[in-house]
Amino acid sequence: ACSSSAATNFKVFRGTFVHSTQEEALVILEDALLGVDSTGKISFVEKGPELEKVSAKFGFNPSAVTQLSPQEFFMPGLVDTHIHAAQYSFAGTALDLPLLDWLQTYTFPVESRYSDLEFARQVYTHVVKRTLRNGTTTACYFATIHTDASLLLGEIANDFGQRALVGKVCMDRNGLHEHYKEETQESLDETSRCGNTFYIININITHFSRPVVTPRFSVSCTSELMLKLAEVARNNNLHIQSHISENMDEVRLVQELFPESESYTDVYRKHNLLTSKTIMAHGCYLSDEELQIFHQTGSSLAHCPNSNLSLCSGLLDVRKVLSHKVKLGLGTDVAGGYSPSMLDAVRRTRDTSKALKIQDPVHQTLTWEETFRLATLGGSQGIPPQPKPSFRAFWS
Ligand code: GUN
Ligand code: FE
């Protein structure tokens, strides 16, 4: 009786499975059996020819196994560790300016339109469907400063079955666009409202979207806002995401805005924003000392090679990052990056590594197996799978 009731609990697949481990960048399991339990978790991986033994051990019907064709294989979902959902509306256009001019000229005017929920619904539906079609099962999204549209993005991702971290963008100063910003208290209140609403939805239904505390970058946040957002993240056990050291002009501007800080990384560290749940995008110009701080704090980096090339921002040396034992995943950074596909991010990661070798022949290029690992296991280190919310309610 025990084994017959267990028989309904597994869905079992037989075929080729491809994945990565810490030890081996690419593992190919041919003719394997993979069992998924009723909660959707993988509960075993066994050898295909041992079907009889395995089915007896786990109590499933061997004739109910789903067999893949020889042309098919399973692989882990791709993790996009950095994507601006709101910028999807102009992806593939407007890549003729460097970062700060690009933000001012194209990005902020578009993002300010997301007070319009109908516009938000259209774009957010498109970006979720498109990224899912391209294999992105988990995405770490920047939305805009608008809470209601950000909540809508979480709802849409959930409805289509994508695990999403959704960041209501926080910015209480904007020298580049006077109207696209918030007051400090407003930014904090809206971040709490966003988190609270996610929490209430999450306790009522199975919901895969979670909030992520999102100070846009040091250029658009005051010290007070950054300190208080760090507190919100700590009190509620939330992820944090932002941008760091993407472009030389940006790095210089941050030095001017925070003259008392030793480096861009030091700015975030002083504001308590570097935690083991922090994902910082880019990091092209981080020094060894700064990477050391990333390692010590357990913060991770999102490498966004398409964006770095498209906006002529820089070339991140992934080998150097990994040699400091800093967690690193890949991101599309739509729309600084023109492609919403993580397989494109894999290719651009290799292209960037090869460009570094052109500059310096001793540079060891990343293998394609390693880039595959970054797009899957690499991203999951910054954003561990977590089907149920672990954060608790705000009491604001
Ligand atoms: N730095 C601050 N905001 C942004 C953004 O929207 N895109 C990119 N690529 N960098 C940023
Ligand atoms: Fe970005």
Molecular structure report:
Catalyzes the hydrolytic deamination of guanine, producing xanthine and ammonia. Belongs to the metallo-dependent hydrolases superfamily. ATZ/TRZ family. One of its GO terms (cellular component) is cytosol. One of its GO terms (molecular function) is zinc ion binding. The protein is α/β, with parallel strands linked by helices. The strands form 2 sheets. Strands 6, 7, 8, 9, 10, 11, 12, 13 and 14 form a 9-stranded parallel beta sheet that branches. Strands 1, 2, 3, 4 and 5 form a 5-stranded mixed beta sheet that branches. The N terminus and C terminus are likely disordered. The protein has 2 domains: 73 residues, Roll (Urease, subunit C, domain 1), CATH 2.30.40.10; 305 residues, Metal-dependent hydrolases (TIM Barrel, Alpha-Beta Barrel), CATH 3.20.20.140. The structure holds guanine (GUN) and fe (iii) ion. The site of guanine has 11 residues, from α3.
Largest sheet: 9 strands, parallel
CATH topology of the largest domain: TIM Barrel
Report, as a whole number of angstroms, the end-to-end distance: 51 Å
Total helix count? 14
- Tell me the structural class: alpha/beta
Radius of gyration: 22 Å
Instruction: Give the class-level CATH name of the largest domain.
Output: Alpha Beta
* CATH-level-2 architecture of the largest domain: Alpha-Beta Barrel
Give the overall shape.
globular
Provide the number of structural domains: 2
Helix and strand pattern: HEEEHEEEHHEHEEHEHEHHEHEHHEHH
Strand fraction band?
Answer: 15-25%
Query: What average pLDDT do the residues reach?
Result: 93
Bound molecules: guanine, fe (iii) ion
The share of residues in helices is: 40-55%
Give the total of beta strands: 14
The CATH superfamily of the largest domain bears the name Metal-dependent hydrolases
Question: Any low-confidence stretches, pLDDT <50, length ≥5?
Answer: 1-7, 387-396
